[in-house]
Amino acid sequence: MHKFIPYVFKSLWRHRARTLLTVSGTAVALLVFCFIGGVQQGMLALTAGEDAGRTLIVFQENRFCPQSSRLPQDYESTIAKLPGVQAVAPIKVFTNNCRASLDAVVFQGIEPEKMKAWRDVNLESGNWNSFASQDDAALIGVDLAARRNLSVGDKFTIGDVSVLVQGVFRSTSAAENSLIYTHLDFLQRARGANDVGTVTQLEVHLTDSADPDAIAKQIDQEFRNGPVGTTTRTKGMFQADTLADLAELIGFVHWLGYACVGLVLSLVATTTVMSVQDRIKEHAVLQTLGLRPLLVLGLVLTESLLLSTLGGILGVAGSVLLLSSAGMSIAAEGVTIAFEPSLTLAIQGVLVAVVVGILAGLAPGWHASRTEIVSALRHA
Amino acid sequence: MPLVEVHNVVKEYANGEETIRPLDGVSLTVDQGDYVSLMGASGSGKSTLLNLIAGIDQATSGEIVVADTDITKLSRGKLADWRARHIGYVFQTHNLIPVLTAYENVELPLLLLPMSSAERRKRVGIAMEAVDLTSRASHYPRQMSGGQEQRVGIARAIVANPTVVVADEPTGSLDDETTEQILTLLSRINTELGMTLLMVTHDADAGSRARRKIRLERGRLLENGKPVSLVKGQTAQLHTA
Ligand SMILES: Nc1ncnc2c1ncn2[C@@H]1O[C@H](COP(=O)(O)OP(=O)(O)OP(=O)(O)O)[C@@H](O)[C@H]1O
Ligand SMILES: [Mg+2]
């Protein structure tokens, strides 16, 4: 079989225009497939994960956009006293765009010490002390820095908020790489609005033995009679609820991923059928020389496999490049989903291409191997 | 013991209500080293008989024994293996693989046999030499003349040293001069390389080059005007074997 591989390559090369079109079509479809997979994975990373289940977010009752959730900051001390609560971080969230947007910028105002204690971030440039000591300082995520072309020392303004970049960080959680951290009191005072004393949400960190659901209930119970009612959920639940609309959309887009696979199948199958029809006589000649029917099937399969695998590898590589270089994310209501490439996804993409290549070649290959030699030889 | 034994072979085609029977109980033996030409009117069944002996078509009934193997009993896969070892087929139109060079076309049949690449190179070299095309080894079919292509086709047919070389109107689409060249080449393959040759032709002049001249008429074979049949003793031997 392997001795005939050069023949397969030469046959593909002979119709290079057709080969190129099929490979590039496959590549585009697999790029979309992997891109969609990347978005889904970003979504999953937000709602799963250890942090998502062990951290509570307290939000104002019946509010969805960060702009409209206003909790008294002193809830912090009440919650901190509850058994099972390890620490509470009051956070002010400001976003330039509350709707779903590819270009939303999300500020989180948090006290620097609390940020240091509870956020798993690594400074890639800049310096922690200048952030902690300067009022309008900001730490920005690497993806945002790349997207907006920002670096340490830059000043930028979004909405009415102007900050000075004092550090660029990378977080273990990809979604955070699109965030901007500022001091809590800075963000409370910004935009002229007098928000001092109110926060958007409270982040509650629990002890290892605490039951998140029980404590969440307890917190909501505590503030039921005011002054402001709360809704407390695990971070995963909070993000899932916030992103519910988007999640539905992403769930739908997921079908487009399958449609891409179908597209590749029909594309590669069409090309293979054409290639087999072009060579009815050639295959008959090869069988006359003594190639077994199964070998002919194998040659056709190899051809379709090469087409789709090559396209698959290119598409997967393209999607990895796109996902990793652009640091893309989508944000809604102050929560960001990062689209991240992953090895699993890449392997999945190539595997899909391989399986599709085999499926696409089976029927035409079978047909080629079963053709009556004598009547095929009469074929023009 | 003859090399090829065709015994009482019938080939029928069902064509709606009527049946065509181009071969109606054909028997023939060919000895090692024979050069047999097969002539007859168009549509008389020459190609059909040749294809049956070459193992690319199935007889309706009868036996075909080549080098002790009854090929009518082989499965498709086994038959393909058998063809690779025993048959060299020269087509009317060369039927070279267009994406392969002359050298690679000639090498094709050897890829199916257990053989080192050095051995393959040697054999392809000998075959290309035999058809006097060594200088064209790296040319593609479209870069060669019809006669050269046919010579590559002949080299491909003889390269694996087959038991029988069959040729179906090998000069059917060539001009007179090239026809002469090819016929001389085929004669040399028979005389110098000692290969057994079975050639279908409608050209009496071409047919006369062969040592045995057989005609196919109304489904039956005639040699020197007399019906061809197996010698009685051989028939008995065939059935007890
Ligand atoms: N697949 C088929 N279905 C029906 N009839 C067929 C088929 N193949 C061949 N025949 C018929 O069988 C007969 C013998 O055909 P064959 O090709 O063997 O003739 P031939 O002697 O080689 O003719 P020519 O000299 O024109 O090549 C013809 O009458 C032909 O029409
Ligand atoms: Mg014929």
Chain-wise SSE layout:
The complex is a heterodimer of chains A (380) and B (241).
Chain A: H1 5-14, H2 16-47, H3 50-54, E1 55-60, E2 71-72, H4 75-80, E3 85-95, E4 106-109, H5 112-118, E5 121-126, H6 128-133, E6 137-141, H7 142-148, E7 155-158, E8 161-171, E9 179-182, H8 184-189, E10 198-199, E11 201-206, H9 212-222, E12 230-234, H10 235-242, H11 244-278, H12 280-289, H13 293-326, E13 329-332, E14 335-338, H14 343-370, H15 373-378
Parallel strand pairs in A: 4-9, 6-8
Antiparallel strand pairs in A: 1-11, 1-12, 2-10, 3-4, 3-11, 5-8, 6-9, 7-8, 13-14
Chain B: E1 4-15, E2 18-30, E3 35-40, H1 46-53, E4 61-66, E5 69-70, H2 76-86, E6 87-90, H3 102-107, H4 117-130, H5 146-158, E7 164-168, H6 176-191, E8 196-200, H7 204-207, E9 212-217, E10 220-223, E11 226-227, H8 232-240
Parallel strand pairs in B: 3-8, 3-9, 6-7, 7-8
Antiparallel strand pairs in B: 1-2, 1-4, 4-5, 9-10, 10-11
Helix pairs in contact in B: 4-5, 5-6
Residues 13, 15, 20, 22, 40, 42-48, 202 of chain B line the site of adenosine-5'-triphosphate.
Explain what you see.
The complex is a heterodimer of chains A (380) and B (241). With 380 residues, chain A is α+β, with helices and mostly antiparallel strands. Chain A has 2 domains: 2-46 and 245-377, no CATH class; 62-228, no CATH class. Chain A is built from 15 helices and 14 strands. Chain A has helices at residues 5-14, 16-47, 50-54, 75-80, 112-118, 128-133, 142-148, 184-189, 212-222, 235-242, 244-278, 280-289, 293-326, 343-370, 373-378, and strands spanning 55-60, 71-72, 85-95, 106-109, 121-126, 137-141, 155-158, 161-171, 179-182, 198-199, 201-206, 230-234, 329-332, 335-338. In chain A, the strands form 3 sheets. In chain A, strands 1, 3, 4, 5, 6, 7, 8, 9, 11 and 12 form a 10-stranded mixed beta sheet that branches. A two-stranded antiparallel sheet of chain A has the order 2-10. In chain A, strands 13-14 form a two-stranded antiparallel sheet. Chain B is of the alpha/beta class. In chain B, 34% of the residues lie in helices and 27% in strands. Chain B is built from 8 helices and 11 strands. In chain B, the strands form 2 sheets. A 7-stranded mixed beta sheet of chain B has the order 6-7-8-3-9-10-11, sandwiched between helices. In chain B, strands 2-1-4-5 form a 4-stranded antiparallel beta sheet, with helices on one face. Chain B starts with a strand and ends with a helix. Chain A binds chain B through residues 3-4, 6-7, 10-11, 13-14, 281-282, 285-295, 373-374, 377, and chain B through 51, 54, 56-57, 76-77, 80-85, 87, 89, 91, 95, 97-100, 104, 108-109, 111-112, 156. The structure holds adenosine-5'-triphosphate and magnesium ion.
